[in-house]
Write a structure and sequence with these properties.
Helices cover 28% and strands 19% of the residues. By secondary structure, the chain is α+β, with helices and mostly antiparallel strands. It folds into two domains: 97 residues, no CATH class; 173 residues, no CATH class. A five-stranded mixed barrel has the order 1-2-3-5-4. Strands 6-8-9 form a three-stranded antiparallel beta sheet, with no helix packed on it. Strand 1 and strand 2 form a beta hairpin. The protein is globular and about 50 Å long. The two termini are 37 Å apart. Bound molecules: adenosine-5'-diphosphate and magnesium ion (MG). Adenosine-5'-diphosphate binds next to strand 5.
């Protein structure tokens, strides 16, 4: 089960992404990036954060700790921003929190080198969960203490938006040509060989069990949260075994062997800058 904490102070909104997450402090003295149940994207975003975030963590990828956060909307009463106040008002009860990584920087592929093995694991994982939000325009990765961390798994598992078509949708290929790590020559085959056997039915069921009931009830076509949890398992399990055969990667833009992973500040840039890379 995810640890449950209670929000004690709303600190500030994060306006980089689309969903207006906020930084909050909680009664365990932790600081979290909170994703709100009342946000326009709906509670499925929170379900996706739990399923995919916990799966990533169980596979050994770096995803910050997740918690659930109880919110009493009164903590937003003094909030001057109308949009934030509305969001807090609409989000009483259980919300999602991700451990805030203080001092982290947004991943920049021109400043930070990722080795082919790690890039392969991230691309394979994103293919598995069908993540459409890890492009070079919007990488949703942070560098913290010299390591790469994965955040924002809300826009994944397209199949959970249309359960009757879920099996067909989960069988579809993954286009990684825009992926922020595509340029690092991701070793997807090695990643699949190591990680796919670890994505078992039991593991997926354990992870689905961590999604709070209240984000699963009243889904059309399902008479219980347990039945919906099973559908998450059944959609992902066959995809794990074969998705590596259906990943499209663009031609690598960096030539030569992978260098040591990490910051490139005192090393020559190992690839030509392209106009594509100047955005963000
Ligand atoms: N755990 C974290 N630690 C530090 N900063 C974070 C963390 N999670 C998110 N952020 C910052 O907040 C921004 C928005 O968060 P994100 O999860 O990407 O939400 P959105 O759905 O709005 O894109 C990120 O781009 C990043 O700059
Ligand atoms: Mg984001």
């Amino acid at each position: 089960m995810l640890t449950e904490v209670t929000a004690t102070r709303y600190v500030t909104p994060l306006r980089e992404g689309g969903s207006l997450p906020g930084i909050v402090e909680a009664d365990d003295l932790g600081t979290y990036v909170m994703k709100f149940t009342g946000a326009g994207q709906g509670r499925k975003t929170l379900v996706a954060e739990v399923v995919c975030g916990q799966l990533g963590r169980r596979l050994g990828l770096r995803v910050p700790d997740l918690v659930t956060i109880q919110l009493d909307p009164v903590i937003g009463l003094s909030e001057p921003d109308q949009e934030v106040q509305e969001l807090l008002k609409a989000s009483g009860g259980l919300n999602l929190g991700m451990d805030f990584l203080p001092g982290s920087l947004g991943f920049d592929p021109l400043a930070y080198e990722v080795d082919a093995a790690e890039a392969g694991k991230v691309v394979w994982f994103d293919a598995l969960i069908n993540n459409v939000d890890r492009s070079w325009r919007n990488p949703n990765m942070l560098v913290w203490h010299g390591d790469l961390w994965l955040i924002d798994h809300g826009a994944t598992m397209i199949w959970h938006h249309n359960w009757p078509g879920a099996a067909a949708s989960a069988a579809k290929p993954y286009d990684a040509s825009d992926h922020a790590l595509a340029r690092f020559g991701p070793d997807v085959a090695a990643a699949a060989a190591e990680l796919a056997p670890r994505v078992t039915e039991d593991l997926l069921a354990e992870i689905a069990a961590e999604v709070p009931d209240e984000w699963l009830v009243d889904e059309p076509g399902f008479d219980s949260a347990a039945a919906l949890r099973r559908s998450y398992v059944e959609a992902m399990l066959p995809r794990a075994a074969t998705i590596h055969e259906r990943i499209t990667l663009g031609a690598p833009t960096r030539s030569g062997p992978s260098r040591a992973p990490g910051w490139l500040t005192d090393r020559p840039t190992p690839w030509p800058h392209s106009t594509k890379d100047t955005a963000q």
